[in-house]
Amino acid sequence: MANKTSAMVEAGILSAIAIVFALINMYVPFVGMFLNFIWPLPIILCGTRHGMRWSIMSLLVAGAAIAILITPLHAFTLTAVFGMLGVVLGECMRRRLTPLRLLAVGSVAAFISLMVSLLISILIMGINPLVMFFDTFDKSLLEVAAFYRQQGMNEEEIEKAIASAKHMFGMVRIIMPGAFLICAPLITFANYQAARAILNKLGEHFAGFPPFTSWDVPRWTLIPYGLSLLMITYYMSQPASALYLLGVNIQMVCSVIYVMQGLSVGFWYIEKQGRPKWWRTMLVSLIFISQFVSQVVVLFGAFDLIFDFRRKRPVSPK
Predict the structure, then answer these.
(1) What's the domain count of the chain?
(2) pLDDT tens digits, residue range 285-310?
(3) Is residue 242 situated within a structural domain?
(4) Distance of CA 9 to CAs 16, 50, 280, Å?
(5) Does pLDDT of 244 surpass 70?
(6) Which of 119, 278, 302, 316 is the most exposed place for a label (fewest CB within 10 A)?
(7) Which residue, among 200, 204, 246, has the nearest Cα to 227 in the 3D structure?
(8) CA distance 138 to 121
(9) Which domain holds residue 313?
(10) How many CB atoms lie within 10 A of CB 59?
């Protein structure tokens, strides 16, 4: 009875925290943007400490309160997209899955929940969040053009700026499926790290991921990466074809993976050579600043899978 009362109290407190997170996300957009990614955290903590039944109850209570205080659509988005991840991660941590296995399971759950919520929004609610997002962008371009004219820019410069923005968002439209695939493990990783830090403080030890300098992706990822480059090259003249779009998305996902692989090698080398830590900060900054550097890091990560710069893989007997 005491355990049940304790679980009920903690579930209520964690539901309240989830509601506060949602309110901050609604009324303090800049801070809320970051809180949105760790919104499942209270649900994860509840599931880890008391089981899936209590995490689901906590999620339902939080969702109902958010629907009343904000909007049903906002409540649906949070509970459908992040709620499933919270329940799954909580159960995975309760079962003490290894970090890598937990990341895999959580990423699948996050991706499925994103897709399901998108389909429900389109088929049942008649709302396409992606169309709304890009419509908002198209309208904002008109406002940006008007602002540039007020600042005295000539029409030629305005057209170049607008064309550049349209090209960038045209690429965003193309890589949106791949972006969902990338977001899923990132959200899972962030929530596990946050939940682990809190639970470790409470005396429950959970293993962390391997050191970043030892991260290594499977060699087989070179196969889809190579195929994607061939698909992009072959269908370059047909940018609207399904195979070209598939190739671009596969290439984008693999590039992000190889950026992490390349950074891991770079950090390992900096550490091995005893270089100052600001070298790592500079390397990460250059990836976001320079497209050339980011491409070099991608290729470096891919070549590491072939040449094994860190000598991590066992040498096959002759």
Answers:
(1) 2
(2) 988 888 888 889 998 899 999 888 88
(3) yes
(4) 11, 11, 44
(5) yes
(6) 316
(7) 246
(8) 21
(9) 210-318
(10) 27
